[in-house]
Amino acid sequence: MHWPADYHMHTPLCRHAVGEPVEYAAQAVKLGLTEIGFTDHSPMRRDDFDNWRMRSDQLDEYVAKVRRAQKEFPALTIKLGLEVDYLPGHEPWIRELAARHPWDYFIGSVHYISDSWDVDNPEKLSHWKDRDPFEVWSVYFERLAMAASSRLFEIIGHADLPKKFGFIPQRDCTSMFQQFLDAAKASDVALELNTAGLRKDCKEIYPSPAILQLAHRTGVPITFGSDAHAPGEVGMDLLRAIELARRTGYSQTCRFTQRQRRLVTL
Ligand code: ZN
Ligand code: FE
Ligand code: FE
Ligand code: ZN
Question: What share of the chain has pLDDT > 90, as a percent?
Answer without folding.
Answer: 99
